[in-house]
């Protein structure tokens, strides 16, 4: 079994009940996710942000007035994590927060001019990232990857359903 750069643990130690090919696929997926994260972080950092901020900026930019709770759900992170991110983004001058006039328990969000400019820059960087990575694959490979990731996603969803029963 080939050892991939960035893998955690030695490649020769099998897991009980896992065939070698499935283990190799898992390791390749983990490597890809790690490399993806590293490249995305470097790409975004070169524009003055990071992937978590990019997701928040995009969500706020598409839904001005979104609540913090809605934002947390939209970007799939815990509300306290969003609160911490928003504090940093507000301090940097990217977002403004205000209390909802009708329900004082709700905090609403919007981008500042600086936040809109950063959002634009990060979206351009994200597009360049996708073009340089996924876009460099052949059309047939991209279609096959979409198909295979759909199969994997379905398997993961089924496993989650079984755990939640």
Assign the CATH superfamily of the largest domain: Winged helix-like DNA-binding domain superfamily/Winged helix DNA-binding domain
Proportion of β residues?
A: 5-15%
- Kindly state the mean pLDDT as a whole number? 87
Span from first to last CA?
Answer: 36 Å
Sequence of strands across the biggest β-sheet: 1-2
Please give the largest β-sheet: 2 strands, antiparallel
Please give the CATH class of the largest domain: Mainly Alpha
Second-tier CATH architecture of the largest domain: Orthogonal Bundle
The low-confidence runs, each spanning 5 or more residues with pLDDT under 50, are none
Attribute tags:
single chain; 165 residues; Arc Repressor Mutant, subunit A; 2 domains; 64% helix
Account of the protein in words:
This protein is mostly helical. It folds into two domains: 41-132, Winged helix-like DNA-binding domain superfamily/Winged helix DNA-binding domain (Arc Repressor Mutant, subunit A); 137-165. 64% of the residues lie in helices and 6% in strands. The chain has six helices and two strands, in the order ααααββαα. It has helices at residues 20-45, 51-62, 68-75, 79-91, 113-132, 139-164; strands at residues 95-99, 107-111. Helix 1 crosses helix 5 and helix 2 packs across helix 5. The mean pLDDT is 87.
